[in-house]
Amino acid sequence: MTEFGFIEQIRRLFAPIPDQGFEGIGDDCAVLPLAGGEALVFTADLLTEGVHFLRHATSARELGGKSLAVNLSDVASMGARPVATLLSIALPRDAAQSWALEFIEGYRTLSERYSTPLVGGDTTRSEAGITINVTAIGRAPLTHLKRRRDARPGDVIFAAGELGASGAGLRDLLAGRLDTPLAALHRNPVPQVDEGVWFGSRPEVHAMMDLSDGLASDLRHILDLSHVGAEIDLEQIPVAAGSDLQTALCGGEDYKLLLTADTASAERLTAEFRTRFGTPLYPIGRITSEAGLTWLRNGRPEPHDWQGFSHY
Ligand code: ADP
Ligand code: MG
Questions:
Q1: pLDDT tier at 311, thresholds 50, 70, 90
Q2: How far apart are CA 123 and CA 95, in angstroms?
């Protein structure tokens, strides 16, 4: 069974159980509308040693930061501001002392930067390998929330940053080149928290998610849930220096925001984003009413069987 096959199975099995007001499985976060027009959002991400990280290739401090960053990214990708986290961690004997303290120092530094207190969790021993689970909670006006299902035909598709740096950094790490700038980027992702909140306040932004598995697979979630298709202009993809086109589209863990916006407002959105954040917003294609994902180079279809990155 694939990762998404299992999630689909879970959805079916739990469909008869009352939702208690939650919008549940399927987006970057689960949503709970509150009285008074606000909403809370919830997300959980797991990092396991050997699958998501190699202990010799990352410091405990960096891992503490990364395990928080990837969750803050999911909250921001809904257009919400993260407000608190919970941390559960299983530690083997050989990581119990200084490793754990360094880890939590890295986690704390990022918590301070984003003003997100750590408000609970669980700590236990592991027979082998470190396992980390973070739950992040965010808050936003309900009308600000951006979902994967809201892309509309004609929308411009944007990436809110360069792509492929993390994938190229992972390649460096796996080849034993631990101290390249790209490897450091892979270990220290920067979640687009302020950007996500800003997009949340913009009604012309329709669908949004964060890029964790690579555009080639993540964009398909938006397309499937919105019942639309897309054309992507390959020459417009902002490939990070030191990376390449395929890594930019299929490599994971860039944690840049992917969004769609009304074409009439696209130019203003791009200009105001640059004014606010000092970096470009990259238009990379458009949403079509016809289903399917089409890669174009200078307007001509170019067939690729590109898929995103999967740990499963
Ligand atoms: P992301 O990459 O944003 O973390 P995923 O692609 O991992 O999201 O997950 C897709 C959806 O499936 C999300 O809504 C997530 O909450 C849900 N999901 C994943 N695993 C489980 C699980 N074990 N139980 C319930 N929901 C899950
Ligand atoms: Mg996500």
A1: low
A2: 13
